[in-house]
Amino acid sequence: MDVLSLIGRDAPLFDEDLTQHREALAERVAGGRFLVIGGAGTIGQAVVREIFRRNPAALDVVDLSENNLVELVRDLRSSLGYIDGNFRTFALDAGSVPFDALMREEGGYDYVLNLSAMKHVRSEKDPYSLMRMVEVNIENTLRTARWAREKGAGKYFCVSTDKAAAPANMMGASKRIMELFLMRESESVPLSMARFANVAFSDGSLLHGFNQRILKRQPLSAPNDVRRYFVTDRESGELCLLSCLLGENRDIFFPKLSERLHLTTFSEIAERYLAALGYEAVPCASEEEARASVETMAARGQWPCYFFASDTTGEKDFEEFYTDDEDLDWERFQNLGVIRNPAEYDADQLDHFLQTIHDLRAAGRWEKGDLVRLFHDMVPEFAHKETGRYLDGRM
């Protein structure tokens, strides 16, 4: 199935920039020692593949999912084979004691890339998942950035999100807070980031769910009023690599908007997806009707769909990569924009955030409102959209 056509495009985004900087990318990877944290998720695997195919001197990959690490190795061996350098994988949590022990090994890294994240808007439904989001998206980022410095890295890269621009949900706000913390870390280790769109068919995404629904003979369900930008998994890996290797300190890369990247609704993609499989999408009036109609519709080349207006917490009608008050560089790359950031931060505010999180955790009990208020203090432009409804209440 052609993913580009499903998301409404006919050409990859970054080919011109990759061609223009091919030699610089190849030279930096070939002589480099890399650590990729969260390297077995969809974006992480794409990044690892981009590094691996350019023959690094060393490549270590850390991820919580041992199953995904196994598949990563099988995929690389079955497609690209082997590299001259050392390639290792570790089933570890970047916030754990075993990870710290790995970091104390002799030898360092030239580049540390952190792709680990809690990325789902649905994770803000309860205070416990929210605290885990703080741990993964903010605290573990600080830990790994400091380990990058200790290991002598010349560059630390961390993935952000388009949802960090004018955030409307806790996930996006957590990534915006992460960006603020990294402004302070940038004084001791050079770093760059990337904000990018939804990665089409990434693990856990709605489009990945389409595959699962077809396999399980279940209806498709999608909002018809939420517009999103989409990139392919390979494009996500290319964007991260370009930012890591070519970004200046504190740069945040993002895809330029053009005729090749435009907002698309999930319901439009569902219709194209089913057409590519030979089915006609048939909207149903309710979830119950859709669930009851699969076999009868499938027999005549149709597939039931439940399309609805979004009413869940944290959803924006559309997404953006930057805000009007950010300093933008449109000239450096053909299809990439760059947000240039000064080394400005409020140290007292950052320390207050960490102390408050420590105190809440030490108390052993906290409410979602405690974290929402703290996030608002850190990000005054945070326009939290709380509806009382969450994606776990949807089909």
From TrEMBL:
Residues 35-282 form the Polysaccharide biosynthesis protein CapD-like domain. Keywords: Lyase. It is an enzyme of class 4 (lyase). The keyword Protein biosynthesis does not apply. Transmembrane segments: none annotated. The keyword Kinase does not apply. GO terms for molecular function: lyase activity. Its EC number is 4.2.1.135. Belongs to the polysaccharide synthase family. This is UDP-N-acetyl-alpha-D-glucosamine C6 dehydratase. It comes from wastewater metagenome.
